[in-house]
Structure formats: structure tokens, C-alpha cells
Amino acid sequence: MHHILATTIAVAMAAFVTVASPAGAQSSGPDETKTPLRPSATEDEQRNIYTFQVENDVFNRFGKSDRDYTSGVRIGWLSPAIIEMPQGVVAMTTIPTFLGEPAADSVIRRIAISAGQNIYTPENTDASYPIYNDRPYAAWLYASFALQYTYKRHDPKTGFDEPTRLDTLQVDLGVIGPAAGGEFVQNNFHTLIGVSPSYGWGNQLHNEPTVGLTFERRWRTGRAVLIDNPKLEVDFIPRAALAVGNVATYGSVGGTARIGKNLRDDFGPTRARPALPGSDAFIGDGSFGWYLFAGFDGQAVARNIFLDGNTDGFSQRVSHRPFVGELQAGLAILYRGMRISYTQILRTPEFFERDRITQFGSFNLTFRY
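Above: the chain sequence. Below: its structure as C-alpha cells.
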């Protein structure tokens, strides 16, 4: 079953891989496209991982709630490590190294499936008439299919293969418009908690199927032990991503600095699409781990359907800014096969008509079973 799912996902991603690395796949440097890597899955890594995420601007304490990116939910499943995967799939979905990184000694390969909904509104949700100088109402319902490769190198100090790089190839399929159920979810939830409904959903983006392809790479760098007992570590996780599709087309770079215990357990907290995600996967040995983190991302944006409007041009729209920055900070706790994290996010203005910062919080629960 794993082979069938992996092959299906790989075929969907093949065109993107070809665009992302037409020359790199033929490079002469040491990379994982040429030498088969041995699998290195531990017992814990051969278990399923489940994720539940909630993102909402109700956590906003510096401005009005229910505006911009106002709500996001996602549930996800990450497979146990796949010991054997068809070599054709591996060759087609392995992106070569491009910054001169040393070749990996082993790899963990997984497939992932998730589903989610994002909701966007203008600031004035009391008006039923179209608002032309603020972002349009929009909802996105999507399913994601991904391959996640964790590359490791042997550490003679610990005697273990340590995770050093995480690659994620993902395809998102979905729909934007009334079919995404944004009005139903938001207004029924508002009724449940005794809050006024949003009256402008009649002006939302119309129905449009969506497809998006994303590649993201994360590196683990600068890991150091500050204190041996009690153990306190630091590290830095740079990242880079490229996304193409009718929902979002952008390139981005960023990174996260962390301080805490058992930092080798993961590659940072998870975020919902279309924002840069973290890693649903985490290792963990059952012992207690934690870390504080702070990060940043910079995006060069070519398209954002939630601002630019429907692809056919017959919808409300605003003018997106070509460069957007984001700051994140939060706390993650890991214990007995479970990870809980909370992230607070600040995003620079995304469109020219309004000069305001977006703020929201992200809660994530991930557990291994």
C-alpha cells in the first residue's frame, strides 16, 4: 500500500521536480541522486505520526480579530519510515544538494496526507457591500500529498546517524470559493460563541479548483551544548522553499534559532500551508524535551490568490506586495511520543491598499502511534 501511495504522489510531483532541478540532477558532485542511501529508521521512526493544527487571529492582542488570515485548521498523517521504495520513484523525487553539503550516509523516507481549511476576511466584517480597498473574503479547502526525506550523517561522538537535512515535496489540491465552506464554518462558529456574523461573504472569491507544488529544504546547523547538566543546547535551522500554483507562487528563505533540550528530535514546529511548514516528523526517545524558538522568513511573491483574486480576473482584488516578511516565536514541548507547540506570528503588510501587520497564533499537537 505504501508503494502504491508513494508512486501516485511521485507521479504528481514529477513535473515540478524536473523544473526545480533539470541541471542539478546531472551534477557531478556527491549527492543522493547517484548513490543509493541505506535506510536508518529506528523503532520509533517506524510508527505513524498524526498532526492537528489550529491557527487563528483570536490570539491577536494588538489589533482587531477576524481580519486578514483569520482561521486555519489542518489534520495530517505521516507514514512510518518506508524501508523500501521503488528506485524510479526515489530518483524522480530526490532533489540534489545545491550548497555543497556533504553527502548523507542514510535516509528516512515517508509519505504524508493532510487536509485543511483556511479563511480570509477584510477588516470590516459588518458591511454586506463590496469593499474595494481591502482584501476580499476567501476560503480554501485543500488536501495535501507529500514525500518527506530526512537525511542523516553518522556522528562518531554519539555513534548514531544524526538528522542533518529535511526535504519536503508536496502537491496541494483543493478549491477556493463558496464550495470551500468558509461562510458556513465562520458564521456558525460565531453563532456558537455569541459573536456577530460576517456579513460580506456574498462578495467572496468564486469557485475555482486549485493546484500547487512546493519544495522545501531545511538544514540543521550550529548545534552546540551550552550546559551539560541540566542539558541545554542551541541550534539554527535555515530553510528555503519554492512554490508554484494558482494559489501561491513564491520563493522564500528563512531560519529558526532554538534553545532547549533534545533539539535533535525534530526540525522545528509545524505551520499550515501556504505558509512555510515545519516538520510533522519528530524522533524522540520518550524522554522529556523542550525548546524556545524564534525565526524569520522572507518571501518574494509572484502570486497570492487571496489578494490577486480569481485567476479569470472576474473577482475582487487588491495589489499584493512583492516582498513580505514574517517573524515567529514560541515554545515546543516533547514527551512520550507527543509534541505540543505554540507559535505567535507577525507578518508585514501584504498588499498596498492597507498598511497593517497581520498577527495570529498557531497551536499544534503531534503524536506518534
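Helices lie at 2-20, 87-93, 182-193, 305-308.
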